[in-house]
Amino acid sequence: MTEPTPGPQPRSANALVLFLFFALPMPFCLFMYHIVLWFTEQIAITSLSAKALGWAGPIGLLVQGILITGTAALLWRYTTDDRFKPIYGCITGAALVALPALILRALGPNNDQIGSILQFALAWSGALIALRIFKNNEWDRGALPFGLLIAGIGMTPLFIYGSFGSPGDAVLSLVAGLAFGLLSAALMPPSTGSLLLDGTGIGAILALLASALGYDGSQLLLVLLIPAFSFALAALLPSRAAISAAAGTLAFAALALFDPTELTILLGDIFSVASKAMFMALLIGWGTSLIAWIMRSVAVSGAGSRTKRAVGWAGTGVTWLFLIAVFNIFGSPGNYGDRLFVIMKDQADISDIAGIEDREERLTAAYEQLTEHANSTQADLHKLFDTAGVKYTPYYLENAMEVRGGTLIRLFLLTRPEVERVIPSPRLRAVPPDEPLPGEQPAPNEYAVGWNVRMIGAANVWDEFGARGQGIVVGQSDSGVDGEHPAIHDQYRGLNQGNDYNWFDPWDNTTSPNDEGGHGTHTMGTILGADGIGVAPEAQWIGCVNLDRNLGNPALYLDCMQFMLAPFPQDGDPFIDGDPSKGVHVMNNSWGCPPIEGCDANALKQASDNLRHAGIFVVVSTGNDGPSCETVASPLSLYDSVFSVGAIDQLGDMAQFSSRGPVTADGSGRMKPDIVAPGVEILSSLPGGTYGYNSGTSMAGPHIVGVVALIWSAQPDLIGDIDSTEQLIIDTARPYEGDTTIGCFEQDGAQNAAYGFGVVDVHEAVRRALEE
User: Fold this and answer.
1) Tell me: domain 451-771, CATH 3.30.450.20, correct?
2) Claim: this prediction has a pTM higher than 0.85
3) Residue ranges of the domains in the chain?
4) What pLDDT was estimated at residue 634?
């Protein structure tokens, strides 16, 4: 007697409700969950005082993997409804991916090619395991064009708002995306016969995979984008080939067109346009669900498959041609890949030039020694790269090069004996142009003087000593400068001389002063703006763009630092056409170069040291990572060769955001900052001839630049004498008398980790300079 064959398990209403309760909201819940985790991580990026929050992402993903895997596994084990048992099994597999994918969260910024390789390895190996476990072998390649059709429609907004990195970046993103598609297809359960149930299960699976295999912000794009097409993909069942193509191509677009590292709160424009593209794609995904029933009837295998394939490929061809046209007309064609910053072992020692009394001779000696040394020590690499067709930019202020290449070239460079180390030099992807926000404050009264200018004693210097910055040239490296702003227009050195030697834009190659961000116009106004907003209103300025959209890289920072030592014509070669006789006296640097921009602690140390040897006074804002100790951590503010500035408010209290010492990032333990100046609610110039308030140590540093200009204007014998000028500012500083209850106030002799040697007093400094 034979055993009876078990029949299908009864369908349970309770099982249906439980499934919908568990799976239907999962894409939304995972998106919100990862938004919270991402935002928490961003707090750690924006402030070193909250660096412990940087663990939110890895810990959150670990918790997700454990909880959802456990829950789905229990449902898989104990459900009695055969419709949901295979779906729960596939959800369990998708949830498990989060555990090995934790390695992606340990990559750190600017390792996107390595990230793509790891994404491929994780997805490919996961797919092989899933295919063996679930034995999903119904691939039906005849429906493949319909998967590509869905992807082509869904990618359109991404091609409008996004841009590609290097060819290597694009290829690796394609490989990673296709592996994601293969894993998605391998984890697709058999159809239940219901588009609602199929789409719900697929949405949960795709959301879990997307949240696990994305990192640095790309998980948000993937979770928002791919599950939106779950019901359209459900219409393609049982063709896993079509699902693999659709999911993989959508994943490729999200990974290739938006750099994960740039999806940071520090760079609001990329995240904003990426979000706009994803929400448009989300609506498209939902829209395709409305015609999912039609697609199911067309895409499934059966009679007339040749006709259906022809229709599918024709529709796909038209869609992809349209996509290419849209990208070329409305998008940002081209390659915007990250580069490599190569620091050579043999750095020039020009410390002996500090004894040259004549300023122009000293600057010339620095320029000639540095360029000669860089040319000789880089020659072999230049020949290799020229032969191989690899593009590069040499530097001399620090013996270094920027090389256009990825992981393979990096590995090659690390084998070269003349190379000390290779660090990232990230380049921002293109975005649609945007106008800087104008200020909303009225123009100041020409007889009024800002509280900040009065606080440091600048107005008294004007009245008592007649020093207003005459004869001093200030170098500004920032987001740019609005050269038409009435407060700073007349002080531009190129006003009558022309823009050669006075303006350099390594970002966009603009040929006259402009400012896309507004930050540089504000800081310049504080240095020398008219109508009472500036400290040294008769100093002159030249400008360089190193912060096109609030982020830079070591090479761009070095571009501008070199320009300040030996400016050159618009189309000139810094090695040949630099003119050190036109070099600046004092530099403002209201920027830092943290790891997200590619820098390590010593990335620009040699350049800073050489500027000091050449007699250029380098002023640097400490950063806005306070109030904890050890938060002066990014170049240039941590270096001994620069004068670092923290921020106080109008009441004389430390700004909580102001970074504090001691410096531990380079192991030196040196105390920083050196001095403090006003940096909270500072009124200054903004693009479009407007005015507005800004806060930050970026606003404090420019006060010290103006202070140096006033001192050297009043006492020219001090020009180029960095040691004496620094000591004069320190010796004449007023004691800090503000609040000390919040944050780090460690003391090292006379220098404090929060306020340095005290509050700057330029009136006393000029008085003593003239007496001595």
Assistant:
1) no
2) yes
3) 13-330, 451-771
4) 95
